[in-house]
Structures are given as structure tokens and as C-alpha cells.
Amino acid sequence: MSRRSRRKPLVPGAESGLDALKAHVMKLEGYPVDRERPDSVKYEVARSRGIPLVQGNNGSLSTQAAGKVGGPIGGAMVRELVRMAKEQLERQR
Fold it and tell me: Does 9 reside within a domain?
């Protein structure tokens, strides 16, 4: 059974904001980011980790290899969101 890709954000219209966040945090992580195509940073992350990620079908890529690419990106985004939330809470005090 194949899994359906969930490439759409749950909140309609949030895609551009998520792309901007991804570009921001990956730039902070030291990766070159194309502001017009922030999603392309995943190929740079893959290249730096020796993962053979290519545009198009990556069906032969193992789950472990995919996690080595998506983990650092998603982890950096979550860390930044937590930092932003803490900062916002501090301002409210």
C-alpha cells in the first residue's frame, strides 16, 4: 500500500509563510538558500549528508535516508518556532 504525500499545509494559505520560515532557519543553519525556491534547500542538505536525493521520483530512497534529509530541516524549523513562542510569551509578561 502506498502512502499519500501530505505536501499541503493544514492551514490554507500557510504555504508561503512556511516556505519563508524554512528559508530563514536553513540560512541560519549555514545552508545556501534560494529565497524564490526555499524547498530546494533539501537537495543541499541531502548532498551534504551523502544522500542521493534527486528531483522527481525518489522511490528507491530508504526511509532512513529520507529522515536524514527531512529531520534536520524539520528540527531546525521546530526549534525556531519554539524560540519564537518563548520570545512572544516573555513579551506578554
Answer: no
Residue type at position 58? N
Question: Given CA atoms 86, 67, 44, 20 in this order, what sign does their dihedral have?
Answer: negative
In a domain, 1, yes or no: no
The tens digit of pLDDT for each residue in 56-84 reads 888 889 999 999 999 989 999 999 999 99
pTM: 0.76
Q: Return d(Cα 11, Cα 20) in angstroms, integer.
A: 15
d(CA 51, CA 45): 8
User: Per the structure, how many domains does the chain have?
Assistant: 1
